[in-house]
Specification:
heterodimer, A: about 300 residues, about 70% helix, B: alpha+beta, six-stranded antiparallel β-sheet, 9 helices
């Protein structure tokens, strides 16, 4: 990068800063740095705590630092951490896949077709959104026992996937519909004349165009199971079948089994799959989020 | 391919009225038929019905005598160019053009040959591998044409394809489209609201208004023999001057205080309109400068538009009624002067004021 300094030439498109504005700018920077600090400080604490061998069962303030991997060793050796990771990734992937598949259909259908009950059902979806899925926990519980009594292979994890995907489909249908609405329907017409059937129009024309938004939806539905604690902690009863959030929680919720630094180490590793996915989808995400911001 | 519309009508879901109805039309093989009309007259609907994108509520659509009402768009042997071009943004120009052939599972070599052939004809070989977002509006227009061409369809449908181009390019593409139509030897149906495009390109014009066909015919017929007051007012620029008045003793008495004695042919057709209300139309170039024995008017020049070859005089009658007169550019006129003109009797059009239909 070459940067030539052009002296005496004012090249910015904005009016020059006055003393007051310089002050305001300084204040903005102070606020921004404070904000960054608020976010980064706890992350740094987790990082240090998980590598600090001087911590015992609890994370204490004022303990000196000595590098050690013993918390990670405990995590991998004495807990079901790998099971939890595996479970969570499986659930997250299945949720993302199911959500994407169904949202593709619903978003496309709501955007392009006129049918009876279209408005009413859209409104219903929106209203149902306002009720947290946790409110239905008793119903979920009964539903699962009914289904499991008929089909014993239907595990509680599968049920969890259905709940996550169901919630994701409802909300994301709106987002995708809005995004597809912004694509001229003349494209559909052109494709139809070129020889596409309904599904081909979506698969060959619409889907490649909405790919950024699909990437955003995929990421959101993938992150969901990593963050949720309540549903798996109630639905899942075997520690081996726990997801990361519930599994790690066992390390801090009981005095007899208190391992706060190990919890920190687990939390740190939890971020890895999400970061990998984020990097993989980065190119799509940036344009998707940007256009999402404009379209609302 | 011959395209026939028999008593076609369209009613959209949730609308009380038919958008268009009772449309009868025959488009001969290799015709360049322009469907012309103001916006909202149902011309695009008509085209989309021919394409199969909108359903046909009543009537029959026949291609070479075969009923096509329920046939899928892809099986109608048509190609269409859209107003927004509707290029697939994620594909290169080449892929855009090859797409329809790929969907028909043509051989790769055949596809390549056809695309290259179309690209050469439309002079767009330079940007075959660019995305639509990387090329200019005029180039996109060409791609849209090329995409329709490679199919070698029997009917070519164009929905206001030039309306997004600048004036210069539009003029150029008009000529090119006509040339293309000739070389492809297809039947073309072209929808536009621009009468210049219609007059210059069509072998046949269909003028629609309010969902009804106002007139069908050759471009010259539209100018010389408009079928009713709507056609008279729509075709031609500047707009035809219309004077309401009355026939008395074979003489037209305008409400604006001048009289016209029509020529023999007009007199005969006006015979039964004795004492009835009629509207006389005259185009701006049919006013002749100077006084004659009869059929004179005297008007005050209000505004002058100098176009070089000719000049348009926006004049006022003593009672305030306006009219447009065009005279050669080298004549000398000035604003606020009163001038005398007489009317060219061969250039008069008479319409029944009640029905607004042409008389004679």
């Amino acid at each position: 990068m070459k940067k030539k300094k052009e002296k005496g030439l004012y090249l910015s498109d904005r009016p020059p800063l006055t003393a007051v504005k310089v002050g305001m700018l300084g204040l903005s920077y102070v606020l921004l740095f404070f904000y960054v600090f608020v976010i980064l400080w706890p992350l740094a604490q987790i990082l240090f705590a998980s590598f600090n061998g001087n911590h015992g069962s609890y994370i204490q303030i004022g303990v000196s630092f000595s590098f050690s991997m013993k918390h990670f060793q405990y995590l991998f050796g004495k807990t079901y951490f790998l099971n939890w990771v595996w479970n969570t990734i499986l659930i997250a992937l299945a949720t993302a896949a199911l959500t994407l598949l169904f949202v593709s259909f619903t978003g496309y259908a709501y955007s392009r077709y006129r049918f009876k009950g279209r408005k009413a059902s859209l409104m219903a979806i929106m209203l149902i959104q306002t009720i947290p899925s946790f409110a239905g926990i008793a119903a979920f519980y009964t539903l699962h026992s009914i289904i499991a009594s008929i089909a014993p292979w239907f595990s509680r994890q599968m049920f969890l996937i259905l709940i996550y995907a169901g919630g994701g489909i409802a909300g994301n249908t709106f987002i995708l519909k809005g995004y597809i609405d912004s694509i001229s329907s003349e494209l559909d017409d052109a494709a139809r004349i070129d020889g596409c059937g309904n599904l081909q129009v979506y698969r060959l024309i619409i889907m490649p165009i909405v790919r950024p938004m699909l990437a955003v939806i995929a990421l959101w539905s993938f992150i969901g199971p990593f963050l949720d604690f309540m549903l798996p902690s109630i639905l899942l009863n075997d520690p081996r079948s726990y997801t990361l959030a519930t599994g790690l929680h066992t390390l801090i919720n009981d005095v007899r089994n208190m391992h706060q630094p190990v919890f920190a180490a687990g939390g740190l590793l939890t971020a890895v799959p999400i970061i990998i996915l984020f990097i993989a989808l980065q190119k799509q995400l940036v344009s998707g989020l940007a256009s999402g911001a404009v379209k609302g | 391919m011959k395209v026939e519309l028999v008593n076609i009508g369209k009613k959209y879901e949730g609308r009380e009225q038919f958008t268009i109805r009772h449309i009868d039309l025959e488009i001969e093989d290799k015709d360049f038929c322009v469907i012309l009309g103001p916006s909202g007259c149902g011309k695009s609907t008509l085209l989309r019905m021919i394409a199969g994108l909108n359903s046909i509520t009543e009537g029959d659509l026949l291609f070479d005598g075969k009923r096509m009402n329920k046939v899928e768009p892809k099986d109608r042997d048509i190609a269409m160019v859209f107003q927004s071009y509707a290029l697939y943004p994620h594909m290169t120009v080449y892929d855009n053009m090859a797409f329809s052939l790929k969907m028909r599972k043509e051989e790769k070599t055949v596809i390549h040959d056809r695309v290259i052939e179309a690209a050469e004809l439309l002079q767009m070989t330079d940007y075959l591998y660019s995305k639509p977002s990387e090329i200019s509006g005029g180039q996109r227009q060409r791609v849209a044409l090329g995409r329709a061409m490679v199919r070698k369809a029997a009917v070519f449908l164009l929905d206001e394809p030039l309306s997004n181009l600048d004036a210069k390019l539009r003029e150029h593409m008009r000529v090119e489209l006509v040339r293309l139509h000739k070389s492809l030897e297809t039947t073309s149906v072209y929808v536009t609201h621009d009468q210049t495009e219609a007059m210059t390109m069509a072998t046949k014009i269909v003028l629609l208004n309010d969902g009804k066909v106002q007139q069908v015919g050759k471009p010259s017929e539209f100018y010389e023999k408009p079928a009713n007051l709507f056609v008279a007012g729509f075709i031609g620029s500047p707009t035809m001057n219309l004077f309401p008045g009355q026939i008395e003793d074979g003489v037209f008495k305008a409400d604006d205080d001048f009289t016209v004695e029509p020529d023999q042919a007009d007199k005969e057709s006006l015979a039964e309109y004795q004492g009835k209300r009629v509207v006389m139309g005259i185009r701006s170039e049919r006013f002749l400068a100077g006084e004659a024995e009869k059929n004179n008017i005297s008007v005050e020049v209000d505004v002058i538009e100098m176009l070089g070859k000719e000049q348009l005089l926006y004049c006022k009658f003593p009672n305030g009624k306006e009219c447009v007169i065009s005279e050669p550019g080298h004549f000398k006129y000035a604003i606020d002067e009163v001038h005398h003109f007489h009317l060219d009797l061969e250039g008069l059009h008479f319409f029944d004021e009640e029905t607004s239909e042409r008389i004679g």
